[in-house]
Design brief:
By secondary structure, this protein is α/β, with parallel strands linked by helices. The protein is about 35% helix and about 15% strand. It has 11 helices and 11 strands. The longest helix has 22 residues.
Length: about 425
């Protein structure tokens, strides 16, 4: 087992989105186990029967096939829609929060609709934009992968809603609705025979881990899930959890200074880290003002207040990471910010541990695939891998998938058009 450049056991690779343009698909040295074209194909084969691309059903017979495909990746902070054709990615579009557990199906559909419309608007002038909404399917194939969508009752409600939105028959094999973590398991289909399972880890606004093994056809099949309980009961190692710890740390720092209801704590008495947290919310050193700003949901519909507050708290993690991992040659890391990040990295590693049962998932014959904005931070990934190694969990390889919506759209284009 070789060690990565950060010293963590296992190789840590980052997979970018421009998969059709070059064989050099990793931002760091290529992962020898994964072939670019097979990677694309395996994404859309994930948890799907071999006939996934026999898209025509009786209810779609005679309908002209669109030259476009769509992949939507919905998370706790944003929804990303990508449209592609045979030549590659054509456009991107963003929408609001889309974690079904937190915002509900109605808002999730609204966020997906916004993202799709923005992607259509962003299409180049040379591409005829599809009619959306329309009585005919605007896309040849669609993959919608959303956070919080992972239980039978969720699918039972979501699939018909999105089928109606996109004019796709519910039974169409070119129409897939699933959890966002599923997009990350695709490399399992293309690795060599020594790798039998995969663990996927997402750390964005929220966090979740899932485990997969190969079926008889060599395709990933989900066999386990760890946490993903939402921000009230879980989401350890996520942006929200780091933000919550940061807010608490700032409040404790304010409490350590003597103050009365008529006194504002001078900012100069606080660390640069805590000063920047207060500046993030545009407040002074008054604890009541700070708490009010944290709980504010300016301009939000009352039904969205809770989710807006959650996203505001999660956004605080940017300040924490900036002080925990300052640029080389700059100021030293803030001890408190680094303590928070290290603690959350340990919790994120603990999310994976229950999935490694040494029977169905043996780390030495498994890969770890990582997604979400936080795991795009190299220093944070290193902490998580180090924490796993300290627990005796060393994967055969560790892959960072940078943009699952791009990867999914490109894969659909390769296989469907």
């Amino acid at each position: 087992m070789e060690h990565n450049e950060n010293g963590a056991a296992g190789r840590d690779r980052q997979l970018g989105g421009a998969l059709l343009a070059s064989d050099d698909i990793f931002l760091r040295p290529p992962l020898s186990l994964v072939k670019p074209l097979n990677y694309l194909r395996s994404i859309v084969q994930l948890l799907s029967p071999p006939s996934f691309f026999n898209w025509t059903t009786s209810s779609m017979a005679g309908v002209p096939k669109s030259p476009l495909v769509l992949c939507v990746d919905g998370g706790g902070t944003k929804t990303a829609a990508v449209i592609a054709d045979r030549t590659g990615v054509l456009s991107h579009g963003l929408g609001g929060s889309c974690n079904v557990t937190n915002v509900g199906l109605f808002i999730a559909v609204t966020s997906v609709t916004t993202a799709i419309n923005n992607a259509i608007t962003a299409l180049p002038a040379s591409v005829t934009p599809p009619d959306f909404p329309s009585s005919n399917p605007p896309f040849a194939a669609v993959w919608i992968a959303l956070a919080g969508l992972d239980r039978p009752s969720d699918f039972a409600a979501a699939r018909p809603a999105f089928a109606k939105l996109l004019s796709m028959p519910e039974d169409s094999l070119a129409f897939r609705v699933g959890n966002d973590a599923e997009l990350l398991a695709s490399p399992l289909s293309t690795v060599d025979s020594s790798v039998q399972s995969a663990v996927t880890l997402i750390a964005g606004t929220g966090s979740i881990a899932m485990s997969f093994t190969k079926d008889e056809a060599g395709l990933p099949v989900q066999i386990g899930r760890s946490r993903g309980w939402g921000h009230i009961y879980g989401d350890e190692g996520s942006g929200y959890h780091i933000g919550m710890s940061t807010v608490r740390s700032t409040l404790l720092a304010l409490d350590r200074h003597a103050w009365t209801s008529t006194t504002t704590i001078p900012l100069s008495s606080l660390s640069a880290f805590h000063q920047d947290v207060l500046a993030h919310f545009d407040v002074s050193g008054d604890p009541d003002e700070f708490l009010a700003a944290v709980h504010a949901a300016p301009g939000a519909d009352p039904s969205e207040h809770d989710n807006v507050r959650k996203v505001r708290v999660a956004s605080t993690s940017r300040v924490t990471f900036a002080h925990a991992f300052p640029p080389a040659g700059g100021a030293a890391a803030d001890p408190e910010a680094l303590r928070i990040v290290k603690h959350e990295a340990a919790d994120l590693a603990e999310t994976i541990v229950p999935l490694v049962d040494r029977v169905r998932v043996r780390p030495e014959s498994a890969i770890l695939t990582m997604g979400g904005a936080l795991l795009g931070i190299q220093d944070y990934r290193k902490l998580v891998l180090d924490e796993l190694a300290a627990r005796g969990v060393v994967f055969a390889d560790a892959v960072r998938v940078e943009d699952t919506s791009v990867s999914g759209a490109l894969a659909l284009a390769v296989e469907c058009l």
